[in-house]
Design goal:
The complex is a heterodimer of chains A (154) and B (305). By secondary structure, chain A is of the alpha+beta class. Chain A is built from 5 helices and 3 strands; from the N terminus they run αββαβααα. Chain A has helices spanning 33-40, 86-100, 119-126, 129-136, 139-150, and strands spanning 63-66, 71-76, 106-111. In chain A, strands 1-2-3 form a 3-stranded mixed beta sheet. In chain A, a hairpin with a 4-residue loop joins strand 1 (63-66) and strand 2 (71-76). In chain A, helix 2 crosses helix 5 (139-150). By secondary structure, chain B is an all-beta fold. In chain B, 1% of the residues lie in helices and 51% in strands. In chain B, the strands form 6 sheets. Chain B has a 4-stranded antiparallel beta sheet with strand order 1-24-23-22, with no helix packed on it. Chain B has a 4-stranded antiparallel beta sheet with strand order 2-3-4-5, with no helix packed on it. Chain B starts with a helix and ends with a strand. The chains are: A alpha+beta (154), B mainly beta (305). Chain A: Belongs to the MIP18 family.
Chain lengths: 154, 305
């Protein structure tokens, strides 16, 4: 782990006002981007005490879902081009979505085009199932992910 | 080949539950391919265990005969039987490879191979069973010699791949080793003689001249497993939850073979298919393992009419 923050001065945005959602007449079956966004917007950044939404790492527009096929695509924007936490953010997103959605949903995670110096390499790692599985068995990484997901509840 | 003429179906024979996490790999015991011997296969899982399944002669269905647990401390990623069927090697994310022997119905861990710096991802025996190969995220391929008394000695640590090595496989008859890596290459390893050093004699990449054919446009997500049957049917299992079967086309071009889709089984499992393995005997059976924790046994049947 590197000492000192990678990005010591991130730009922090105010949280978007949450729109109260009316009851969906189709019941709980419908999955739309906002529903997914609600699950992930408050995930804490691994390095800073702010949410991914506050740091503009995620927005509602970063999510697309094909409910029929059961596929979710999330695109996120790391705060800086050489962000070494990109893979950790990816892991956090995966763990969270796995908790919230039925197991048959397939999730693809990418960095926004042009937002990272090693875009291709990072995208490959983010979506390599074997690498993700091994990473989540690493107790240190798992602890970091848990802190990002659950720190609000502590 | 009559396969192309017939109306074929991949019929689900059995759905085996037991593993409590995803099934990564399946391996049929080669010694159980004969018609009068109950067919046996091993499966390994993210639940850190290996299960041994045996066909019951009376019910003609598979039961779990043994659970190999409390040895690996992390995901078991790959398993392989020795050619004699007497030993089972299991490769794990815990950086070790365990060797198991069937001692009167109970499987005992008779040896643990250590050395890899991190996750071991694949293990393969050579044709004679005298050598074992392992590979992993530490970018190396290890060759182990099988010594008397279930001792294993590392005779070579092969460097060359620049990233994670995901799979190793020996040539079916010659002592030539293939490895494939996250660095997008396949390397061919060879030693001049028994005492000689092993070295990489060829690196296959996207534009290598030995490349014969690419089958694309069938699966729309990662293909995790491919296996060739005795009759030349290629089975593939992928993250689109499907299994596809391919055979060589009759009217291939003069300058190389071409393949066509024989049949597809969509929604073969509820989640990604990680492993497909043909039964090594005469019956056209296929085993598949999935992220959904299930193992399915399929039979390739000709439909009547």
């Amino acid at each position: 782990m590197t000492l000192g923050l990678i990005n010591a001065n991130p730009v922090v945005h105010a949280k978007k006002e949450r729109v109260a959602r009316t009851e969906d007449p189709h019941g709980d079956d419908a999955v739309d981007p906002l529903e997914i966004y609600d699950f992930v917007r408050d995930i804490r950044d691994p390095e800073h005490p702010y949410s991914l939404e506050q740091l503009s790492v995620l927005s509602e527009e970063s999510i697309t879902v094909d409910e029929k096929l059961g596929r979710i695509l999330i695109t996120f924007t790391p705060t800086i081009q050489h962000c070494s936490m990109a893979t950790v953010i990816g892991l956090c997103l995966r763990v969270k979505l796995k908790e919230c959605f039925p197991p048959h949903f397939k999730v693809d995670i990418k960095v926004a085009p042009g937002s990272h110096a090693d875009e291709k390499s990072v995208n490959k790692q983010l979506n390599d199932k074997e690498r993700v599985a091994a990473a989540l068995e690493n107790p240190n990484l798992r602890q970091l992910v848990d802190e990002c997901l659950y720190s609000n509840e502590l | 080949m009559e396969l192309l003429d017939g109306n074929l179906e991949l019929k689900e024979i059995q759905n085996l539950q037991g593993h409590t996490d995803r099934v990564w790999s399946i391996a049929w015991n080669p010694a159980t391919a004969a018609a009068d011997v109950p067919a046996v296969f091993a499966s390994c899982s993210g639940d850190k265990t290996v299960r041994i399944w045996e066909a019951s002669p009376s019910t003609r269905s598979w039961d779990c005969k043994a659970v190999l647990e409390e040895t690996h401390t992390r995901t078991v990623r790959s398993c392989a039987w020795s050619p004699s069927g007497k030993l089972l090697a299991t490769a794990s994310f815990d950086a070790t490879t365990a060797i198991w022997e069937n001692v009167g119905g109970d499987f005992e861990c008779v040896s643990t191979l250590e050395g890899h710096e991190n996750e071991v991802k694949s293990v393969s025996w050579n044709a004679s069973g005298s050598l074992l190969a392992t590979c992993g995220r530490d970018r190396t391929v290890w060759i182990w010699e099988v010594m008397p008394g279930n001792e294993f000695e590392c005779i070579e640590v092969l460097q060359g791949h620049t990233q994670d090595v995901k799979m190793v496989q020996w040539h079916p008859t010659m002592d030539i080793l293939f490895s494939c890596s996250y660095d997008n290459t396949v390397k061919v390893w060879w030693s001049e003689d028994a005492e000689g050093d092993w070295s990489c004699v060829q690196t296959l990449g996207e534009s290598s001249k030995n490349h014969l054919c690419t089958l694309s446009g069938y699966h729309d997500r990662t293909i995790f497993s491919v296996h060739w049957s005795r009759e030349g049917i290629i089975a593939s299992g992928a993250a689109d939850d499907a299994i596809r079967l391919f055979v060589e086309s009759k009217d291939g071009l003069m300058n190389g073979p071409s393949y066509q889709l024989l049949l597809k089984k969509e929604k073969a499992h509820d989640m990604d298919v990680n492993s497909v393995q043909w039964f090594p005997g005469e019956k056209r059976l296929l085993a598949s393992g999935s992220d959904d924790g299930a193992i399915k046994i399929w039979e390739l049947e000709t439909l009547p009419g």
